[in-house]
């Protein structure tokens, strides 16, 4: 079977798109499920209610260093959702849940075009200020308007043998909800309970996060020194 291709800004990308090196900082929060559902209702998907009335929201900064889309920073707000047609609930439901991508600012034009065109991700242009001192921190603004700042305390090493894992994300653009399967390998993982402070700005994205009850204590936070990923084509699901 011939691999699919996409031409972005004059560059031909052959699927799957590969990320050879990236690093990651992530925080996971328990939020009101009804508030999270209201935020993503437009997608037609249902949040995963892992506890009665509770859902999981993940805030993540990625620094893609070497990959088919070039070097760039990306901030994501994702909500854990059930697969289409599923009403699963409870802690075990998270095992089959996927991540619906609600916010996805980036700082490079090529990945913005690729992300919106190929996968329907909600990429917009943002500006990042990153500090890698004793504590890792970053600030994101869009059109000069502060969105969010996060500061991470260093976690404890999480010993695991790096192995490739399969996951999926969901996106919604131009009235179409899409599912994208991807694989990743994580190496150099550190994690801890809590471990992150959040500052919200006055951008509309910030107000959406505030409506979820942020800033608040994270369930857990983590960092990953070396991430490898590969993304296939998006599949329309509605």
From TrEMBL:
Matching Pfam families: ADC
Top-level taxon of origin: Bacteria
Stored InterPro entries: Acetoacetate_decarboxylase, ADC_dom_sf
Molecular function GO labels: lyase activity
The protein's name in its UniProt record: Acetoacetate decarboxylase (ADC)
